[in-house]
Amino acid sequence: MIQVSHLTKKYGQNTAVDDISFEVKQGEIVGYLGPNGAGKSTTLKMLVGLLQPTSGEIAVAGYNAETELLELKRHIGYVPEEAQLYEHLTLVEHLQLIGRLYHLEERLIAQKIEELAKLFDMAFQANQRISGFSQGMRQKCIIMSALMHNPDVLFLDEPFTNLDVGTVTLMKALLQRLADLGKTILYCTHILEVAETLCPRIMIINSGKLIADAPVEELRQQTNQTALNEIFAQLTETTGIDEKTEEAIRIVMEGTPDA
Amino acid sequence: MLEKIVEMLGASPTQYRYLLNTEKLVEKRALKGNRFVNLSLGLSCVIFFVVGLSGASMLLLSLNVFTYALISITMSMAMIGIWTIPYFDILIAPTHYPIVAHTPVSSRTYFLVKLTQILTYTALLLASFNLPPAIAGIWIHARESSQLLYLFPIVYLLIAFMSGFFTIGVMTVFAGYLTKLYTKKSLRNIAQYAQFIFPGLFPMVWILLPRLPFSLSDGGIDKLNAFVKWFYALPNGWFAGAVSLAVGEIERPNIVRNLILTGLAIVSTLILVFVPLRSIARSYSEYLSYLLESGNQQKSELRVKIPLFAKLFRNPAMRAAFCLGAAYMWRDKHILRQLFGSFGAIIILVILFMQDEPFSLKWIQDAYAIGLSPGFSMMFYFVGTSFIGTFILPVRYSEHWKASWMLTLAPLATTRDLWRGVQATTLLYIVAPCTLLMFCIATVIWGVSGVFYVLPGLTILLYYVIFYPKPVSNLPLAEEFVQKRSTAGAWIPFVCSALVVIAFVGIQYLTYLVNIWVYYGFYSGTVVAGLIGWIHFFRKK
User: Fold this and answer.
1) ipTM of the predicted structure?
2) What is the distance in angstroms between the Cα of B403 and the nearest Cα belonging to chain A?
3) CB atoms within 10 A of CB B252
4) Taking 50 as the threshold, does the pLDDT of residue B363 lie above it?
């Protein structure tokens, strides 16, 4: 469902994504992990057509990103890392905007808005402007937008940020159910616990390079670690945490009476 | 020295310096590669210089120092007042406040940073305007008996700058007291709308300006000198008195007057700085914290309504952009302020037309050819095109520009439909009401034949909307909102409108001069082209 071949993105001399290749099958949920600035969000932005790759091939839902971008966009849903919204709109107006951009019938848009707003406990806030929403409510808006048009492939970039426990539980179950129904999900996150429970397969990217791509069980065997955070630390060479903590304490206390 | 003044005003000089430098740096980087702003500021300076030359031309009227300085300073104060109105957005709606709101920056410091930003632009415009009258003043003074004639340019420039800053001070106090109303919940809406209408109040001074030359032609210098006495009661008179005194007008009949007026200028400036401005500066952060409030959080029942006009469009992308544009037209404070500001300026222009003989209503009603009224049509085209410009220019920019990823991600064959949606918003929410109003006025004055006066306007306004420059991406609200860019271009809609009106009315008049049938042909062609255009625009899939 998602085919990426030798994908590269360069900003001048800086290589954000370096020759990445992978494939995700229909109905799979794949966790895409990596430290800050590793190139996760850049990869996702290229997959959804928001960024132009420097080189490489992308195909999603059978459509080539270079030659059939419009068809590709029709079949995907995207939850970006930051919930950037038109804040002067209400939730209803925002979802109407999205529905129209995806050429949905007005009646269907209205029906979906009512049902989604109730599902995400937003019915009483649906006619309020987004500018007054909390971060969690904004995140719910983005998630609802991504689901409005029944996409075949979902690209999720830290989708649970700022969500309450109830919504996170709902979302986990929903994503699992969507995968069972044949939807493909590429899930990008820092929260390893969620990735561990939700994603049977994990890809890890570090400094733009794909350094691991295997089922969680296989990664455990490869690294001789049981917890995903330990696997992640080993693969991304995140070491010396104790020393760094002490150094941080020293800097914070510097020049203050407690030092 | 500036930091000493800042300290005297109760602000932190270090924070002031760093905040001001940061604001400048951020603005510079946001505008990097954008020639439009510099060009726009440059053109503003040129316009100020040209008007300043007309002030200097008063030299030809054999005026004394006081009257000459009075006319130039009055023009300078009024021009600064009108031109800097858009810059008050910097103070009333600062964009970066949430970033520093939680840091220990005092209200006064932040207020002074914002005020300094406004004064920077003001200084540039003041210099452009006052240079010609300052230099020309050497010659006017040569006719008098003063010992200090060579000092005129320096003295005049210093006092003209002081008068300009005084003007900004008065406007800030006005705006500042409106911001104080925000603390009273019941008055918040009034304060908000008063801020929108505010631009229309101060430029009323401008009404006096075109009347001065006509007074001169009517009754000569004696009448003018009698008229000038009224200005002793106004700040422009005080600053003119200060100029007279500083260049040595100390003869017995003038010394008392000049001393009193200079005293008034100095005392009023000091009072302005140390009483109301200090007080507003103290409560400024309180106002800003109200701006940060998230708004009405009262729960309400879910209802999904489809806007009435949205059903007109068969193309869903166009419908989407139409609704987005309409929502932002009424809710985005920057767009609203420009629309209301334009409304204020147009009202003033209409008052001018009604008051002064050469522009009287008679002129508006004057008819030629087959009875069509050029004056009325011109007013309609000008009002309509100005309003169009004040919406369609700022709708490209938004504080929420990053949200345009949604428009980029949407599976649209062409983004042109999105811009067409914005054009549709303009046609239905600006052009349609304007036309309806003009239909009413025309039919009341001229009966059914009044309809003919309005019809060509529908064509002009439609094609003005269609051909108005659009963003390369075709996406509305997708470019970063930068206050300086928005304010620097505030005058563009008026200039564009004037050019279109002159061109269209000129062609009409030329065809009339050539042959009446050519005129009829042109008129009919215009109306038919408009009708076809309107139908085509709304029927296109």
Assistant:
1) 0.83
2) 5
3) 6
4) no
